[in-house]
Amino acid sequence: MQLYNSLTASKGEFVVPTDRPVTLYVCGVTPYDTTHIGHARTFMTFDLLVRTLRWQGGDVRYCQNVTDVDDPLFERARRDGVDWRDLTENQVRQLVADCDGLNIIRPTFFPRASQEIDGMIPIIQRLVELGHAYEREGNVYFSVRSDPNFGAMARMGYDDLLATANQRGNNPNDPLKRDPLDFVLWQTGKPGDPSWESPWGMGRPGWHIECSAMATRYLGPQLDIHGGGRDLLFPHHPCEIAQTEPVTGVKPFAHVWMHAGLVWLDGEKMSKSLGNLVFARDALKEHGPNILRWYLLTTPYREEFFYERAEVSRTREPLGLVEGALAATSGSGTPLEVSRQRDAFAAALNDDLNTPLALAHILELSRAILAASDDARDISTAQATLREVTGVLGLQL
Ligand SMILES: [Zn+2]
After folding, report:
1. How far is CA 57 from CA 3, 15, 21, 53, 54, in A?
2. Do 253 and 363 share a domain, yes or no?
């Protein structure tokens, strides 16, 4: 299978191991707002990867985390006057319901950062021992100058790295830092925020270290595939790499880094901060899972997706064709042979999950079945193949 790898900025052969499961880690949500289409697209991308690997005989061990130790969650809990644990509980329940509704396969492991603090502290301690991190007044920072390759996957110079980090939550003016790009491994936190005991006093972990701890605990020191949304290409994922590799002593931390393109709505990136969200729950209620899935698969996962509310329902037409082919009457004439279309479908997915091409092959197969049905040929095997390949795309027809 060919997969595009952000680490090498190229497509490369991913050989599915036969003697052990494929390990896949995907960065999950901070549970403070309901699942929107941007999340849904990212999770659907990795759902499709899992389905494709399993279809081809691979075993997959899939870990997706919940970032329930994070400023936006605590701020939302304070604003609404609720306990952050209750907020997490409700939001995770909603997320699971939304993903189930979209027929997204549940991960093998679904850990929460708040339950994994004991795995983070030893990693931070080791980074301090190795000279990659330093403590200042109860905070511990990763020293980006200690890693000559820091941020390499982002392919940017220092100034652009810093500007991007600043847009995504970095505080360059923290006077305790040696370098404005240094990132937090442990912090004292705001008074009233949840905190845990540590060798540096009461506090809580930084966001990046949470994923390193959970990924290595559940999947081991080296992952086959690490994924997430495109916005994690910097700083989150390079920070994970910088803090994990010195501690495990294994490079690369993940063989393949996959990033799903972001979703745009009406010309702007769909994001909580802009408030232009389409919630998965609402879209599901309006269109149902099959239409929504088909629509989201019409663009390759790496490209940005331009969500147009008026366009979603147009998917009804191709889906109707497939449903018609599945319901067509089989005759007793020469059986319709469709192994060529099945192979072409598999080849499309094996080419870095080329979903538009896979959908085109499904339509071609459907038309062939309808034509053969008109000629009273035996289409039962072809229909079984059609059901099989639509199932790989997570369609429930
Ligand atoms: Zn992560």
Report:
1. 17, 12, 10, 7, 5
2. no
Q: Give Cα 386 to chain centroid, integer Å.
A: 27
- CA 157 / ligand 1 centre spacing (Å): 22
- pLDDT score, position 267: 78
Q: Are residues 257 and 163 in the same domain?
A: yes
Tell me how far apart the alpha carbons of residues 44 and 390 are, in angstroms, rounded to a whole number.
14
Q: Please indicate, yes or no, if residue 63 is contained in any of the structural domains.
A: yes
Asked whether the predicted pLDDT for residue 269 surpasses 90, the reply is no
Query: Looking at the domain assignment, is residue 165 inside a domain?
Result: yes
Cα(71)–Cα(190) distance, rounded to whole angstroms? 9
Q: pLDDT grade, residue 246 (50/70/90)?
A: very high
Residue 266 has pLDDT above 80, yes or no: no
347 within a domain of the structure (yes/no): yes
Q: How many residues does the chain have?
A: 397
Q: How far is the CA of 253 from the centre of ligand 1 (A)?
A: 13
Sign of CA dihedral 161, 163, 168, 170: positive
Is it the case that residue 192 has pLDDT exceeding 90? no
Tell me how far the alpha carbon of residue 73 lies from the centroid of ligand 1, in angstroms: 16
Q: How far apart are CA 175 and CA 25, in angstroms?
A: 34
The Å distance, Cα 327 to ligand 1 centre, comes to 43
Q: Please give the distance, rounded to the nearest whole angstrom, from the Cα atom of residue 33 to the centre of ligand 1.
A: 18
Question: For residue 72, what are the CA distances in angstroms to 30, 68, 112, 232?
Answer: 8, 9, 16, 17
Could you list the residue range(s) of the whole structural domain that residue 74 is in?
Answer: 18-124+147-170+206-282
Determine how many CB atoms are found less than 10 A away from the CB of residue 200.
20
Question: pTM surpassing 0.85?
Answer: yes
Asked if pLDDT for residue 105 goes beyond 90, the answer is yes
Rounded to whole angstroms, how far apart are CA atoms 115 and 333? Answer: 61
Ligand 1 centroid from CA 28, angstroms: 7
* Boundary (domain end) residue, out of 282, 302, 331: 282
What pLDDT score does 193 carry? 87
Rounded distance from Cα 211 to ligand 1 centre (Å): 5
